[in-house]
Write a sequence for this structure.
């Protein structure tokens, strides 16, 4: 789930599609590398499938040594090699996005005219480039150690098991932001567009993305409070962990401030965006409890942690990913889905998610440990509700999927170029976009000036406002759009 | 510059549209294309730096905690071969930098000569590595998990007398005077040292092999006369990669071989 | 194409910067010299500064390679910024890990002392197997027996 879905989900799937368009570029900088990274992803996925079909994997995604190197009887090498390959897929995506943002911006697209989604993907790319190779080497070391016994991690061979945790978390904490930063970017787009208001605090959101990217590298030790590292380091990491809360909170407050007095239209993507604010709120705030040294030692390796990171990873990243799919779906395929069905799916998924994971906070704080196949009888009711919630969540996601698939079959409801009234450049080309994204280079304005478009009944969508004042930019905007 | 360079090379565009010959469809100018490639390569080099960093961290923790065992371990490495390899790699780095110059000036024959020297140096480097590795293989100086490793904690390898046993006798003299606890610690830590040693130099060696492959590919393209003032990106990026391989070795050499 | 190349030996030729042969050769000379220095200093006792001196020399060599061979001096500033940034991140990685590594070595040591009885190294190292014995078939058992 982590390596195969959440990490490539928004940056690779949505980013590759939307980022060049939002930037006003013809393509990403390296289209072939892009395809190569997709093939790597497929190969990595294949490795994981082989791991599942042969002996399974009982180490968890963290692969802690020395269990994974010397004791586990499962298909660890297939899984670590799979993750290694997926890491390179992720690196190449990040590299591609970074170069695209730097070099493919057309005239007029300055850094501060870029939509916030691009800022988020850019910050993500920085993390992918700097952190992912470290997991690559960690997994390679682990694989070689398991195969040849090089003795770097296993204390029986003179190794240092905590070293593995350091190397692993040096990547895997920043990786958390590889998952959640793009989600924040999507939400920034959705909130602004469906409130028909310029995003509140554009620059602070943009800089907070970069700040998160940098802070993410200096807090990894908070995963290791009980690993045996020194008290001083624990205290330093705990204190630094709170620094990440600041840019995260900046984003949430700015979203809420954007909603304030906005002209909110509750289309399906907006439902997801609002769900993310709620879920990320809970996930982020419970993260503070875990960042606090004292409470973490109590809550470490309990279901509280499980609930926390599901709120962040699934609740924020996956919900934003699905929201992004619903948002760009008309642009991708030129069809509209059924709003009612899509909203029902969203509602059920949201409700199911909360029913599943909220009880786990309580169970965890009462001491239910994670990674056990069984639980003590006093935790039965929490697990009962979690199970019900999981089923509701599953039904909700299935309905969401159904609404998307259904839109492609039978009688298609053709999507206009701009069904949402968004002002970013991706909505100025046709739906679906032409091969090089734009038939004419679009004029670049600020990304959230919603005065530039207005509803037109005959299009069943938005169009650029008429060039009444003879503004040549707006005139070109019109010609670029009508096909 | 941006439009000028596109126009200046416009006469190459003999296949139907107004793009210069070496310009991919989604770039506007050659300069944009070159800059993008170069930035991408640098970003890739950053990943390489971070990729090796994990191993350097493994090295540093090992060394910081066991300085005496570490100098004992390093005494089994041969400074002579390390130094020769350093020189070989530095020369290859120089010829790689020269080949970029040759490509920029369109000096195809010199370019080919420099690429061939680079390849020869890379081959020499790997040859010397082979000599070093095979010595250690026969002397049992191997990671602890291997059967013929003298650091294997379950069934340590014991050499035959007069066959590659100089290192073994030296080690025996050092550790047999220790207490059992100390000896276990020393032997397992030495095993870890050779794990780190083989990992670091092996990964570096893999990079050298990849470099040999890429340089050979560039050499073939040079042979077809593809490179010139407006198309030397492949040579430039390959040289950048090769310099990085050199950079890693510049640090590996003193860290592994020069610990008195 | 070659004619075009010969008439301009300026600094900014086409897309990139052309380095003079003298400069490249000079850098090679400096690198070889520094290698010699580091071999000499590495083999003498320098009162605990061995590592620091070796690292200073290595960093100097690395800087030369980056700045001249890799064209960073004439390249876009962003490349230098990014490269130095990555080295800083490596520094953070190393510094944190090293600050703390002494702390838990005792635990690892205690584990290895507990395991001592299971290790072949609890006994002194065997003498090499005498050559005359031709221990092809049971050299492994020999090692355990002694």
């Amino acid at each position: 789930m982590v390596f195969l879905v959440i990490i490539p989900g928004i940056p690779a799937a949505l980013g590759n599609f939307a980022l060049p368009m939002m930037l006003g570029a013809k393509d990403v900088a390296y289209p072939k590398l892009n395809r190569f990274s997709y093939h790597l992803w497929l190969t990595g996925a294949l490795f994981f499938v082989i791991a599942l079909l042969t002996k399974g994997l009982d180490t968890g995604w963290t692969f802690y040594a020395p269990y994974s190197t010397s004791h586990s009887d499962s298909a660890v090498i297939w899984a670590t090699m799979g993750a290694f390959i997926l890491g390179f897929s992720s690196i190449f995506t990040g590299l591609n996005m970074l170069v695209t943002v730097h070099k493919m911006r057309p005239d007029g697209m300055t850094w501060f005219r870029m939509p916030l989604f691009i800022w988020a993907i850019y910050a993500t790319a920085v993390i992918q480039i700097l952190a992912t190779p470290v997991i690559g080497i960690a997994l390679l070391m682990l694989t070689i150690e398991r195969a040849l016994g090089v003795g770097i991690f296993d204390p029986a061979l003179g190794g240092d098991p905590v070293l593995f945790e350091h190397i692993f978390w040096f990547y895997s904490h920043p990786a958390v932001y590889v998952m959640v930063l793009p989600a924040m970017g999507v939400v920034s787009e959705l909130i602004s567009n469906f409130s028909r208001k310029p995003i509140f605090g554009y620059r602070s959101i943009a800089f907070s993305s970069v700040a998160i990217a940098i802070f993410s590298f200096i807090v990894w030790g908070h995963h290791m409070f009980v690993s045996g590292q020194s008290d001083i380091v624990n205290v330093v990491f705990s204190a630094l962990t709170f620094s990440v809360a600041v840019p995260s909170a900046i984003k949430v407050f700015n979203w809420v401030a954007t909603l304030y007095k906005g002209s909110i239209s509750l289309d399906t993507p907006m439902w997801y965006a609002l769900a993310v604010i709620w879920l990320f709120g809970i996930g982020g705030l419970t993260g503070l409890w875990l960042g606090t040294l004292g409470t973490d030692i109590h809550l470490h390796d309990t279901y509280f942690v499980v609930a926390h990171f599901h709120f962040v990873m699934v609740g924020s990243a996956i919900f934003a990913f699905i929201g992004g799919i619903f948002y760009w779906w008309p642009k991708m395929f030129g069809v509209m889905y059924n709003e009612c069905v899509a909203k029902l799916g969203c509602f059920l998924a949201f409700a199911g998610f909360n029913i599943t994971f909220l009880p786990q906070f309580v169970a965890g704080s009462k001491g239910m440990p994670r990674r056990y196949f069984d639980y003590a009888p006093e935790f039965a009711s929490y697990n009962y509700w979690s199970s019900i919630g999981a089923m509701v969540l599953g039904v909700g996601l299935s309905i969401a999927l159904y609404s998307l698939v259904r839109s492609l079959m039978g009688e298609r409801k053709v999507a206009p170029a701009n069904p949402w009234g968004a002002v970013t450049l991706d909505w100025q080309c046709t739906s679906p976009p032409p091969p090089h994204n734009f038939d004419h280079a679009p004029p670049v304005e600020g990304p959230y000036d919603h005065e530039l478009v207005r509803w037109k009944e005959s299009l069943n969508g938005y169009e650029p406002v008429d060039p009444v004042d003879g503004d040549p930019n707006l005139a070109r905007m019109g010609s670029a759009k009508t096909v | 510059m941006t439009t000028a360079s596109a126009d200046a090379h416009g006469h190459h565009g003999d296949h139907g549209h107004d793009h210069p010959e070496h310009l991919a469809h989604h770039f506007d100018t050659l300069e944009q294309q070159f800059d993008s490639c170069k930035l991408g390569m640098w970003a890739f080099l950053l990943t390489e730096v971070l990729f090796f960093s994990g191993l350097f961290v493994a090295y540093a923790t090992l060394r910081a905690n066991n300085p005496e065992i570490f100098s004992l371990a390093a005494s089994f490495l041969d400074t002579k071969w390390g130094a020769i390899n350093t020189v070989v790699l530095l020369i290859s780095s120089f010829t790689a930098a020269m080949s970029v110059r040759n490509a920029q000036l369109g000096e195809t024959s010199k370019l080919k000569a420099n690429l061939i020297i680079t390849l020869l140096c890379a081959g020499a480097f790997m040859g010397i590595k082979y000599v070093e590795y095979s010595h250690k293989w026969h002397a049992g100086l191997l990671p602890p998990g291997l059967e013929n490793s003298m650091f294997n904690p379950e069934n340590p390898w014991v050499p035959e007398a007069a066959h590659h046993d100089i290192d073994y006798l030296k080690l025996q003299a050092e550790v047999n005077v220790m207490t059992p606890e100390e000896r276990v610690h020393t032997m397992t830590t030495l095993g870890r040292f050779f794990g780190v040693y083989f990992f670091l130099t092996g990964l570096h060696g893999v990079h050298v092999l990849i470099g040999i492959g890429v340089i050979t590919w560039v050499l073939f393209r040079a042979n077809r006369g593809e490179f010139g003032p407006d198309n030397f990106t492949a040579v430039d990026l390959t040289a950048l990669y090769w310099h990085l391989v050199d950079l890693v070795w510049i640090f590996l050499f003193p860290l592994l071989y020069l610990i008195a | 194409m070659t004619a075009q190349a010969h008439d301009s030996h300026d600094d900014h030729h086409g897309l990139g910067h052309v380095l003079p042969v003298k400069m490249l050769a000079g850098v090679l000379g400096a690198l070889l010299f520094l290698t010699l220095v580091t071999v000499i200093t590495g083999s003498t006792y320098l009162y605990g500064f061995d590592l620091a001196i070796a690292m200073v020399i290595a960093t100097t060599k690395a800087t030369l390679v980056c700045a001249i061979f890799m064209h960073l001096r004439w390249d876009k500033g962003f490349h230098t910024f990014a490269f130095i940034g990555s080295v800083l991140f490596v520094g953070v990685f190393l510094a944190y890990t090293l600050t703390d590594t002494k702390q838990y070595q005792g635990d690892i040591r205690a584990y290895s002392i507990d395991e001592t009885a299971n290790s072949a190294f609890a006994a002194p190292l065997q003498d090499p197997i005498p050559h005359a014995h031709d221990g092809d078939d049971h050299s492994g058992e020999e090692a355990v027996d002694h």
The interface with chain A takes residues 25-26, 32, 35-36, 39-40, 43-44, 46-48, 50-55, 57-58, 61-62, 143-146, 151, 153, 185, 187-192, 195-196, 198-199, 203 of chain B (CB under 8 Å). Chain B has one domain: 28-257. Helices of chain B lie at 2-8, 30-65, 67-74, 79-105, 108-139, 166-175, 180-223, 233-257.
